[in-house]
Each structure stands twice: as structure tokens, then as C-alpha cells.
Design goal:
With 262 residues, this protein is α/β, with parallel strands linked by helices. It contains six helices and nine strands. The chain has a seven-stranded parallel sheet. α3 (121-127) runs parallel beside α4.
């Protein structure tokens, strides 16, 4: 958990689970996997379980943290909370009952807005169906819980179809790292928000200006809010911006878009 976050589209992070496994090209340079290895070396108790070296790594084995479940209930100031910045809540190793408990905490903590991002939207769709609920089940589409999926190139646009079928008050796409074009024919029906960002760090792969503009134009045409997070290391260098290109003042005017879903 971090009560503050440097991620531009959120205020804080909450990790009731840690660890994950890579499932697509967007995971290749996973910042969380790298950070988990460092935290393991520092002796952090939450990062002592290693994952499968083929898909995960040191300190990044999927781990449930019962002691963290009620953390947001103790935060009095309202904030946007990125859920599982160091994991994926809908990873196949997370028991459905544990996901229910996370959802119940978010439902109770109405003063916060929770942003749940997954690369496994099919499981999110199936678990969040109404017919999973018993008579004492929580409201599975609370207005303060947003559900999103990562889509790094056109190959993974099928995740958007699963997200569209997911019971959520707000549905969003994270096109970060954007590794290829998502347009033409990007269908954003049923989607409320899309985040765009280039990759940063060692070995960063390029994002192209035209890929980002294609998404912005598609979102404009379909009435979807857009948030451009950063250019990424490679495009920032090409455009004379600093670092990972996170300062909109250094971007072309057409990319200076930071909107929020209604």
C-alpha cells in the first residue's frame, strides 16, 4: 500500500495481493516484477515468495495479504485508489472468495474511487456476473469502482470485448505500454475512459505519435474520455522531451489531453 502515488491518473495504491505472471507482450518489461525483486532483496516480507521463472520472478509469486484488506477503510480523505498495482486481482490463483471480499471492502468504502486494472478481463467478466451473487452478496456494480483492462496492440483488442460484458459502473482501457496501433476500427462502445502511455525504463519499446493520435481521434468520435499519461522514453527522446515524457508542456498540442470519465 502507498498512501500517495506518482502515477498521474491515481492518488494511492492498495495491494491486497502481490505477484503475477506475464501473459502478453505488454508484460515483458513489467515494472512491478522488477520492483518485487528489489523488495525481496531488501527483506520485505510481502515479497519473499518467488514466481515461476518462465513467467514471473524473484519475490513475484502470487500472494494474498489478509492484513491489507481493510486498509482503505482507515483512509479518511477521499482519493482515487489503484487496486493491485503490484499484481492482478483476477489472476487465476486468486480465489474467487478473496475477490468477493475485496469487492465488499470497496463497496463499503464509498468515499474512495477504486481503479481495478487487469489483463484477465474474461475472468473479471465471469466473476462479476449478477448470477454469482447470493442473497447477502454486495452490490457488484458500485458507482465508486472502475474496472479496466490493458490493451497494448491490436492483437489484444479482444480484451475490450470481455470488458464490455463486465458488470461495472465505469469501464476503462489502459493502452500502456502502447506497442502498436489499435486503430482503425477500434470499437469503444460501452467504454468510458482510455489511458495512453509509452513505455519507459531500460529496454523501453517505442510508441509512435500516430498510434496515440489514432486512439484520441477514435475516442473523440465515440464520446470516450482520454488521458494521455506519458510519451515513453523513446518518443520523448524523438520529440526532445525529458525523461519518460511525462510533462504535457513538452508534448505536441494534440496530445495534451487529460480527461476523466463522467
Amino acid at each position: 500500500m502507498a498512501d500517495k502515488s506518482g502515477i498521474q491518473w491515481t492518488d494511492a495504491t492498495w495491494n491486497p495481493t502481490t505477484g503475477c505472471d506475464r501473459v502478453s507482450p505488454g508484460c515483458a518489461n513489467c515494472y512491478a516484477l522488477t520492483m518485487a525483486g528489489r523488495l525481496k532483496a531488501m527483506g520485505q516480507a510481502a515479497y519473499q515468495r518467488d514466481g515461476d521463472p518462465r513467467t514471473s520472478g524473484p519475490g513475484f509469486g502470487l500472494t494474498l495479504h489478509e492484513d491489507r484488506l481493510e486498509q482503505p477503510l482507515r483512509w479518511t480523505r477521499p482519493r482515487r485508489v489503484f487496486v493491485d498495482s503490484m499484481s492482478d486481482l483476477f489472476h487465476e490463483a486468486v480465489p474467487e472468495g478473496f475477490i468477493h471480499r475485496v469487492w465488499l471492502v470497496m463497496t463499503v468504502a464509498q468515499r474512495h474511487t477504486f481503479q481495478v486494472l487487469t489483463k484477465r478481463p474474461e475472468r473479471a467478466r465471469d466473476i462479476l456476473r449478477w448470477d454469482h451473487l447470493g442473497p447477502t452478496g454486495p452490490d457488484w456494480a458500485p458507482p465508486n469502482v472502475w474496472v479496466g483492462t490493458s490493451v497494448e496492440n491490436a492483437r489484444w483488442r479482444t480484451r475490450i470485448d470481455a470488458l464490455r460484458e463486465t458488470n461495472a459502473a465505469v469501464r476503462f482501457i489502459s493502452a500502456e505500454p502502447l506497442l502498436g496501433p489499435l486503430t482503425p476500427d477500434l470499437d469503444l462502445s460501452g467504454i468510458d475512459w482510455i489511458i495512453i502511455g509509452g513505455e519507459s525504463g531500460p529496454g523501453a519499446r517505442p510508441m509512435r505519435f500516430e498510434w496515440a493520435m489514432g486512439i484520441i481521434e477514435a475516442a473523440r468520435d465515440q464520446g470516450v474520455a482520454v488521458f494521455v499519461k506519458q510519451l515513453g522514453t523513446r518518443l520523448a527522446a524523438d520529440m526532445g522531451a525529458h525523461g519518460k515524457g511525462g510533462d504535457p508542456a513538452e508534448w505536441p498540442p494534440d496530445l495534451r489531453v487529460r480527461e476523466w470519465p463522467r
